[in-house]
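explain this:
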Amino acid sequence: MRYLAIDFGSKRTGLAICDPSETFVSPYKVVHGQKSLIEKIENIIHSENIEAVVVGLPLNMDDTEGPQAELVFEFAEKLKDKINLPVHLQDERLTSYAAEEKLKPADMTVGKQKKRIDAVAAAEILNAFLDKNKN
C-alpha cells in the first residue's frame, strides 16, 4: 500500500511517501504555511496514487496529549472528511531528533537542513508506522 506521512506544523508541514511494497520510505517535500494545506495534500494524494495517510501525533513523553496534539486531531479529522481515505495517527515522539541526527552527516548548511528536517521527520513517522504494522 502506498502511504503518505504528514508531520503537521503551524509553519511547516513535512511529507514523506513509501513505495507500494512498503519497503522504501522517502522524504517528499515540505509545505510552508497552512493556507490551502489540505488541498495541496489532496493533489499529492492523487498525483502519487496514495492509498492511506499517516499523521504524526505529538504526544508528551509521559503519554499525555498537549495542545499541539489537539491541533493534529482537528487537522486529521478535516483531512479524513476531505480525502475519503484511511487516516492513521502515529506517535511522533523523538522523530525530529532522529531526523536531525540523520541530517548531521550530510554536507548541508543549517539553513538547508532546516528546509528538509520536516520531510525527514515525516519519513521517520512513516517508518515507525510501517515497522509497527509489520510486527
Remarks:
- The chain is about 45% helix and 25% strand.
- The first helix runs from residue 37 to 47.
